[in-house]
Amino acid sequence: MTLINIIIKMSEGLEKTCAIFFLTLLFAIPLGMIVALLRGSKFKIISSIARVYISVLRGTPLMLQLIAVTYGPYYLFGISVSRNKLIPVVIAFTINYAAYFAEIYRSGIDSMPVGQYEAAQVLGYTKTQTFFKIILPQVIRRILPSLTNEIVTLVKDTSMAFTVSYQEMFTIGKQIANSQTSFVPFVVAGVFYYVFNAIVGFVMGRVEKKMSYYKI
Amino acid sequence: MSVLAMSNIQKSFGSNHVLKDISFHVDKGDVVSIIGPSGSGKSTLLRCATFLETIDSGTITYDGRNAAETVSGKAVYAKNLNDFRHIFGLVFQNFNLFPHYSVLKNMMDAPVSVLHRNKSEVRDECMALLEKMDLAGKADAYPCELSGGQQQRVSIVRALAMKPEILFFDEPTSALDPELTGEVLKVIKQLADEKMTMVIVTHEMPFARAVSDRVVFMDKGVVVEQGRPEELFGQTQNERTKQFLQNYSNT
Amino acid sequence: MKKRVIALILAALIASLTFSLAGCGKSGVDVPVPAEKAKVFTMGIDPEYPPFSYLGDDGEYTGFDVDVCKAVCDYLGWEFKVFGVNWDQKLVQLDSNECDCVWSCMTILDSMKEAGYIISRPYFDNEQVLLVKADSGFKSSADLAGKDVAVQLGTSGESLLNEDLKDLADSFGKVVTCDSFLKCFTELEGNAVDAVFVDRPVADSYVAEHEGFVIIDEDLGAEQYGIAFRSGDEELCSQVEGAIDALVADGTYAQIAAKYTDIDEGNLIFLK
Predict the structure, then answer these.
(1) Chains meeting C at 3+ CB pairs closer than 8 A?
(2) Which whole number is the average pLDDT over C152-172?
(3) ipTM, 2 dp
(4) Does C200 touch chain A (CB under 8 A)?
């Protein structure tokens, strides 16, 4: 198999890698915010549940969570394993990344000076307005660097989907490597991930720059 | 009728009894300065008046309507507190401008999204206010691009944009370099001349004396003495007031 | 051979980057282990491949291949060790000296010999079969047209579907590659696939232990198992082969085979 053929074959899997990446971001970014807000809840039970959620999801390997989400429902309730592996894979990635995002949001929210809340309160903003108009935009600005870190990790973590037999780019690379007794596919995979992350870094850099019109 | 009346206010932080049965009122057009040593409770009084702290007991009345009253020994707040918030404005020691909004947006956002007023009307008013305060050139600037004095002046016009009946100042010059206090005090003086109702917590004694209709001296959670500035600064008979003013002029 | 040199250079690179192995600096090919010094003999197995190599109830690796290797080591006076390889990386791990041989139902492929590996005489006749649920009604590979089939990554079954049985693979709806054969069976049990393409003895053992599964009686690919050694280890290979011959001669080999009733003795070449 020529290098070109290897690249073409692996590009087919890249589509699935991208699907995991974008769908996970799409769901985990808002879910993380919900978890962060629940964690900050005044009600002890709710904040404890959110705390346990974060602690479990961050304290166990993503690979285990992938297996649990994919095969757990079958072993526990006899529900058939999903034929479209994208569904359990995205669920597992989403709940895992939501936990990490929640902690990042939390640290951002906690770092906001109380004066911002007080100024908004005195001006008569409702709690919802205060959060969405005053607090959230500043929080996003503050957490953007940590968020970028996590997104870069997500790109690399997509390769873990192979544990539940989802044929993303790295799995296909392994198959080719195996049948050709060649390491070229691994090098290609490395280049793919590197380029992907270079794009992520570039985009996030632009966003950061765009948001840095003011100093904190 | 008083714009603000606070009576028998009690406030504790844990075992620390900060406000001990304070009664205090401000009439329309009054400029009242509150002075006193650190920890005397003057800032807390202001924060209670603006609902940033909740009182333990007592009554807070704006324009004759109760915002908080005491029912069987405990303070109960009105449900529609946001309606009361439109009556007053507060200028913070640390400005607390919204850093992600331009100067104009800082001013316009609350009237538009809280009071639901017409945007272009609010814009015209805000531009006029900025013009008056010599800040028109800064309308599109962000707070981080302004000096401390300019930031505090912006925070004053932000409060004014809500057209409050009464404006509170919580040590408005304490966070400023000495050479920048003048521009802020000038603005407050200008407002006093326009008969704006104001309550000013301050350490600037000469300013308090010059601008106020009435001066309140607080110490250890009680109002020790209050009266016209020339009485309090000139011929007080109260030993504690005397001692405070003396210490102050020494330092 | 040139391909292999490139592969080795990349192996060293990737191994140091990805696997963070300790002491992987020397290449197995350049420094063959002298047989007389090989006091410790490390057997590379797929640790999830019953009944040939698996983790026994006592927590020790066991199985037909493991027991034979143990007997070989006893015979030669070597210390016996087991190393669980990542099946789709088995030859890399052999090259990087993590084990001295790969001995775990390994199908002999021409590509291995071309790449310079020393392969022992074949010891087992295998065939690839399709395992399905008993109530599925599938009777032949033709019935599985448009259905999903699981296969383990790195097995000869996978290579077959990619090459000799490409037409059959194309008739399937989807070929799902799993990283262990246990996951293939989980996929089948959980209805995520309709059949598993797997080595005959593994399928036999699975059917014996689990109800509700049948093997489609259709020979899809005949092949043989052998033991792989690093290139240059001809000496080591012939020592092991000699020991096995001795064990066959004194009956030990047959005794071990008798322990594993799931394994059809008719397929054990040395006992024919």
Answers:
(1) A
(2) 88
(3) 0.92
(4) no
